[in-house]
Amino acid sequence: MIKKINFTVNGKKRELEINAGETLLEIIRKRLHLTGTKEGCGVGECGACTVLIDGTAINSCLYLGVWADGREIVTVEGLAKDGELSKVQKAFISEGAVQCGFCTPGFVITASALQSRGHSLTDIEVKEELAGHFCRCTGYQNIIKAVKKSLENETAGTGGDHT
Amino acid sequence: MYLIDDYIEADSVDEAVNLLADNPERLIIAGGTDLLIKMRDGILENVQMVGIRRIEPLRKIEKDEQNVISIGAMATFNDLVRSELVQNNIPIMAEAAMTVGGPQIREMATVGGNLCNGMPSADSAPALLVLNARLKLLSKSGVRLAPLQEFYLRPGKVDLRPGELLTEILISKEDYLNFGGCYIKFAPRKAMDLAILGVAVTCRIRVTGIFDLVRIALGVAGPTPLRCEIAENFPPGKPVNDSIIAEIGRLAVKSSRARDSQRASKEFREHLVVELTQRALKSACNRAGGISYD
């Protein structure tokens, strides 16, 4: 069954004819060729497929493409602006929060959603907010550091030093 | 790619109910976090679906003039966690909702889906059982109100009749006002895990430090979430102290129908029932006021 959807991906309006059974993840990767978003477990446990839907971090593997109609999607490719990496991306680099890199786009997306809320979090709160992501290299310490750095006040002079 | 033969997005409750009346085989998809996984595993395929995600009224959490709290079936777990109405009146629901999956799952998964999926491990079920929740089930022939306790038939099977849509979960003021409550989920991991046991307790205490009422419900202690009537009948009129609370914990096992599973043995689950019922009851007593337990 073919369905037509209109939605925005990384600021660009798209109109697609999709199969009713296609996931948003499949649409992003196979139709739009935005392969930054990864499929890990495919059942909503690992968080590698996380994207922003109207600003909220959602697992795109458990999200039907038809639900994306009218929504605004941001993938990891949409975070940099005018060739400059986002504060979250810079923090992940400066804190060495990337090992094999497979889980990184998901973590960066959730961290971006947290950053857009505009307030800092305690260590425990950061861990709770990241609980939907697995890093099988187990590099959590630096990821947590990077997320905390992303949430630091802009005026505190963070980010960018090592990038 | 899921094998979905037909998908219709309902814009209103009436449209959804009409679609179900025309074809009772049609599956309702809410948050999809259970249903899509079943489809991926091949348990379900070539299905016809009706989506209810765009029906905004189904997501409301509100209180009427009789102080009956209504939770829309499409309220997500994060809606429950964030709702001031829930935090102020039925905080046990926010506490239970917070134990579900992780943030992304809580954003999508709905309380209605959690109940209709019928799993013994549903975290919302024990909390709603102690709140004596009633379900509003709408079909073309009208509204049916069913107590949650009677809704569960067996694992994975609830009394959702052909053509019915769960629209609201209702909680009366007599079931939450002046109660203290607590939900404890026991699982190997702090997040992204299913309960090995879930315990929900609410209680009301007389000013004199005497139990007025205690309600206990267990998840994963039997084929369906269940209430512990034998343990509940014991405390009214008895003093709030360690030995009475210990006895309530021991009595809770009498209603448990735990079995051995890959995830835990019957003995371990029963041990958890005794221990966690006491812990949850102590917290509930603290929250009901007047008593201070560490």
Describe the structure.
The complex is a heterodimer of chains A (163) and B (294). Chain A is an alpha+beta fold and 163 residues long. Chain A has 2 domains: 2-76, Ubiquitin-like (UB roll), CATH 3.10.20; 87-151, [2Fe-2S]-binding domain (DNA polymerase, domain 1), CATH 1.10.150.120. Helix content of chain A is 30%, strand content 17%. In chain A, α2 (87-94) crosses α5 and α3 (104-117) packs parallel to α5 (140-151). The longest helix of chain A has 14 residues, at 104-117. Chain A is globular, with a radius of gyration of 16 Å. By secondary structure, chain B is of the alpha+beta class. Chain B has helices at 13-22, 35-40, 77-82, 84-89, 91-98, 103-108, 111-116, 124-130, 148-151, 229-233, 242-255, 266-288, and strands at residues 4-9, 27-29, 47-51, 61-63, 69-72, 134-139, 142-147, 152-154, 157-158, 165-171, 180-186, 197-206, 210-219, 226-227. In chain B, a hairpin with a 5-residue loop joins β4 and β5 (69-72). The N and C termini of chain B lie far apart (51 Å). Chain A binds chain B through residues 1, 3, 19-23, 26, 42-45, 47, 50, 56-59, 62-64, 66-67, 69, 110, 128-129, 131-133, and chain B through 1-7, 9, 29, 32-33, 36-37, 40, 49, 51, 53, 101-105, 107-108, 190-192.
Quick structural summary:
The complex is a heterodimer of chains A (163) and B (294). Chain A is an alpha+beta fold and 163 residues long.
Features:
heterodimer; A: 163 residues; alpha+beta; Ubiquitin-like (UB roll); DNA polymerase, domain 1; 2 domains; five-stranded mixed beta sheet; 5 helices; 30% helix; disordered C terminus; B: alpha+beta; four-stranded antiparallel beta sheet; 12 helices
Mind summarizing the main beta sheet of chain B? 5 strands, antiparallel
Instruction: Identify the most extensive interface between protein chains.
Output: A-B, 30 and 27 residues
Spatial shape of chain B: globular
Number of domains of chain A: 2
CATH superfamily of the largest domain in chain A: Beta-grasp domain
So what's the oligomer here? heterodimer
Major sheet: arrangement of strands of chain A: 2-1-5-3-4
Work out the number of β strands of chain A.
5
**Residue share in helices of chain A?**
25-40%
Can you write the helix and strand succession of chain B as a string? EHEHEEEHHHHHHEEHEEEEEEEHHH
Query: Structural class, from secondary structure content of chain A?
Result: alpha+beta
Query: Briefly, what CATH class of the largest domain in chain A?
Result: Alpha Beta
Percent of residues in beta strands of chain B: 25-35%
Number of helices of chain A: 5
The percentage of residues in β strands of chain A lies in: 15-25%
Q: What is the helical fraction of chain B, as a range of percent?
A: 25-40%
Order of helices and strands of chain A: EEHEEEHHHH
* Average pLDDT of chain B: 96
Mean pLDDT of chain A: 94
